[in-house]
Design brief:
Layout: E1 2-8, E2 11-16, E3 26-36, H1 38-44, E4 54-55, E5 59-67, E6 79-82, E7 120-123, E8 127-129, H2 136-139, H3 142-155, E9 163-166, H4 170-181, E10 187-190, H5 194-202, E11 207-209, H6 216-222, E12 229-234, H7 239-248, E13 249-257, H8 271-276, E14 280-283, H9 291-297, E15 308-312, H10 316-325, E16 330-334
Parallel strand pairs: 9-10, 9-12, 10-11, 12-13, 13-14, 15-16
Antiparallel strand pairs: 1-2, 1-4, 3-5, 3-7, 3-16, 5-6, 6-8
Length: 342
């Protein structure tokens, strides 16, 4: 079969690799749509740890092609979405309710072979069945939606109170839509790119702002009657955004760090301000126990508003370039000519 293989030090390409067969308790899935995520670009550029050689792709939707001995919940032909995390089960975090913090966690597309291939093999427990009429491109968004749901849970979004989201790429737009679904009002989105602000509006933002406008701070605070935001979400991954968010939250506010920042990025924070205003800086990682919840949201989010582009396995360089350029809202790999067209 053909697969996109990352071999380390920026080397990535499409290669012939052996076909797969399932072991006991495993399924082999034929991917129909695989989202190209910022994490994929970070891996290729050495900013996110992976274990090469590895097949990339962790936002996966496909059909079950083969089932192994003992598989009980899935059959050949089922449409599935992949929850891409395997935990050790025996460490402190796994045994105390925070398994997503497992230091020995392994993820298809990062540490194990992923979905940018004509086949991917996963344990049955990672393949969540979807309704047969689900758009595979929506199904491939289940994983990022699940991560966003965890972030919204962590942020403590409350109905009837304002929230501000920095960064309006696909994840930021999903954050906007989820905050709206949770009842936040108004939801204000911030991005320096006009087409990203337009995406935020299509996903339900009540207002959008350009951080470069001269009166940005006053304009942002005007939506809170000058009090500040109970919740601010950094969907960029930027020290400057964190500093701005701290300035814009109200007393007792929560600042959620969702975007993946460069490991060398450093924010300047005044501890006395965190203390005196009782602020909370919150990290959020992965999608612990939220994948099934994300499936339940697929038909409640305006996913058709994403303007997407599709690429074949052979076009991985073009796909990564398109993702980094942000010329479209979402980039997908279509691993097989039999896959759907966006």
């Amino acid at each position: 079969m053909r697969a996109v293989v990352y071999r380390g030090s920026g080397h990535i390409g499409t290669e012939d690799v052996p076909d797969l067969s399932p072991g006991p308790g495993e399924v082999v899935v034929a991917p129909l749509a695989v989202g190209v995520c910022g994490t994929d670009s970070h891996i290729v550029h050495g900013h996110f740890p992976a274990r090469p050689p590895v097949i990339l792709g962790h936002e996966i939707c496909g059909t079950v092609q083969q089932v192994g001995e003992g598989v009980r919940t899935l059959a050949v032909g089922d449409l599935v979405t992949i929850e891409p995390h395997i935990y050790c089960g025996v460490c402190f975090n796994c045994q105390t309710g925070t398994q997503h913090m497992c230091p020995d966690r392994k993820a298809p597309g990062v540490h194990l072979d992923g979905g940018m291939a004509e086949q991917v093999r996963v344990p049955e427990k990672l393949a969540f069945k979807l309704p047969a009429d689900t758009d595979p491109f929506h199904g491939a968004l289940t994983e990022p939606i699940a991560c966003c749901i965890h972030g919204i849970d962590r942020a403590g979004v409350r109905s009837g109170l304002p929230a501000i989201v920095f960064g309006c790429g696909p994840a930021g737009a999903i954050m906007v839509a989820l905050a709206k679904a949770a009842g936040a009002y108004p939801v204000v989105a911030v991005d320096g790119r006009s087409h990203r602000r337009d995406l935020a509006l299509r996903f339900g933002a009540d207002a959008v702002l350009d951080p470069a406008q001269p009166d940005f701070r006053d304009a942002a605070l005007s939506y809170t009657d000058g009090v500040g935001y109970p919740v601010a979400i950094d969907a960029v991954g930027s020290a400057a955004v964190v500093e701005t968010a701290i300035d814009l939250v109200c007393r007792g506010g929560n600042i959620l760090l969702f975007g993946v920042a460069n490991p060398d990025d450093v924010a300047k924070i005044h501890p006395n301000e965190i203390y005196a205003r009782e602020l909370s800086l919150l990290g959020t990682a992965l999608n612990p126990d939220t994948h099934r919840r994300a499936i339940g949201m697929l038909n409640r989010l305006p996913l058709d508003e994403l303007r997407s582009a599709t690429f074949s396995l052979e076009q991985i360089d073009e796909a990564l370039a398109a993702q980094q350029a942000g010329a479209v809202d979402k980039v997908f790999i279509v691993p097989s000519p039999r896959s759907p067209q966006a």
